[in-house]
Write a structure and sequence with these properties.
With 199 residues, this protein is of the alpha/beta class. It has 7 helices and 6 strands. The chain has 2 domains: 49 residues, Helicase, Ruva Protein, domain 3, CATH 1.10.8.420; 95 residues, 3-Layer(aba) Sandwich (Dna Topoisomerase Vi A Subunit, Chain: A, domain 2). 43% of the residues lie in helices and 13% in strands. The strands form 2 sheets. Strands 4-3-5-6 form a 4-stranded parallel β-sheet. Helix 1 crosses helix 2.
Length: 199
């Protein structure tokens, strides 16, 4: 049983997977899908060995330059700064954005020992100097740390970019104001935009 226990323990490293869920997964693979388990192990081993950070944007990739940075059809005038590769996936799946990215792999958090060096902000400055984007979009999360990170980057970039913008936060599409929390409503009111009635 030691090997089964090791398998269960190994599965608990996944986010949201507790001991019971890990047990169900392990027993399912061992009892009903050994081929799937073997395939999972092989793919996981390959991914752990071959996936790395893109040299330009720090997104996860198997090659030195990821497919997004290597796509000449993307808009070189836009550079979007995000906290994680999951944010890149979310923005790409939403559609509508055709610029490039820079992935921080975290946010400023002095308590956790995460400073500008850990976020690769020197690489961000080098990317800005090389590509000269017209607009830098700060798409960090609307948390205290995310806001602090966006503010820090905005000040750091200074006049190197013509326009530095922050993604809007507010009432979700289809949401109702009476059920929206106070912090979200406050952000929505502060980030309000002008409506041009002449169009």
């Amino acid at each position: 049983m030691a090997l089964i226990d090791d398998l269960v323990d190994a599965l608990t490293v996944l986010p949201g997977v507790g001991k019971k869920s890990a047990q169900r997964m392990a027993l399912h693979l061992l009892q009903r899908d050994r081929g799937g388990g073997t395939h999972l192990g092989n793919i996981l081993g390959c991914a752990m060995r071959d996936v790395r950070q893109c040299l330009m944007c720090r997104n996860l990739t198997e090659t030195e330059i990821c497919r997004l940075c290597d796509d000449p059809r993307r808009d070189r005038n836009l550079l979007c700064v995000v906290e994680s590769p999951a944010d890149v996936l979310a923005i790409e799946q939403a559609g509508g954005y055709r610029g490039y990215y820079f992935v921080l792999h975290g946010k400023l958090s002095p308590i956790d020992g995460v400073g500008p060096e850990e976020l690769g902000l020197d690489l961000l400055l080098a990317r800005i100097a090389e590509n000269s984007p017209d607009e830098l979009i700060l798409a960090t999360n609307p948390t205290v740390e995310g806001e602090a990170t966006a503010h820090y980057i905005g000040r750091m970039v200074g006049d190197r970019v013509a326009k530095v913008s922050r993604i809007a936060h507010g009432v979700p599409l289809g949401g109702e104001i009476e059920y929206t929390d106070g912090g979200t409503l406050s952000h929505a009111l502060q980030g309000r935009r002008h409506i041009n009635l002449l169009d």
